[in-house]
Write a structure and sequence with these properties.
The protein has 119 residues and is mainly β. The protein is built from no helices and eleven strands. β7 and β8 form a beta hairpin.
């Protein structure tokens, strides 16, 4: 199983980006997926989670600004990020086959994509 994240870049505060994560292997449609992020000098933190059936949860810091979604036909999970703030600057990681907000619960991880938000 591999996860390939993309879509990061440099954006001004208030702008938007959409991250994508393409998964290899079978049974993607049966797996929960999530996004985490790690800011410089900080630990990895939960951002958003989507169940195999489409239920979503978000961290308080991104609720109302970010949207997680999935396209099982493309084995892809997305993170639409709007109203970006400088504090959203981080490497964003997709994760597969886990539950909740704890990173140790996830089995597979992508390589990360860097999002930089300038003020």
């Amino acid at each position: 199983v591999q996860l390939q994240a993309s879509g990061g870049g440099l954006v001004q505060a208030g702008g938007s980006l959409r991250l994508s994560c393409v998964a290899s292997g079978r049974a993607f449609s049966s797996d929960n997926m999530a996004w985490f992020r790690q800011a410089p000098g900080k630990g990895r933190e939960f951002v958003a989670h989507i169940t195999y059936s489409g239920g979503t949860t978000y961290s308080d810091s991104v609720q109302g600004r970010f949207t997680i979604s999935r396209d099982d036909a493309k084995n892809t999970v997305y993170l639409q990020m709007n109203s970006l703030k400088p504090e959203d600057t981080a490497v964003y990681y997709c994760a597969r086959r886990g539950t909740g907000r704890n990173e140790i619960d996830y089995t597979y991880w992508g390589q990360g994509t860097l999002v930089t938000v300038s003020s």
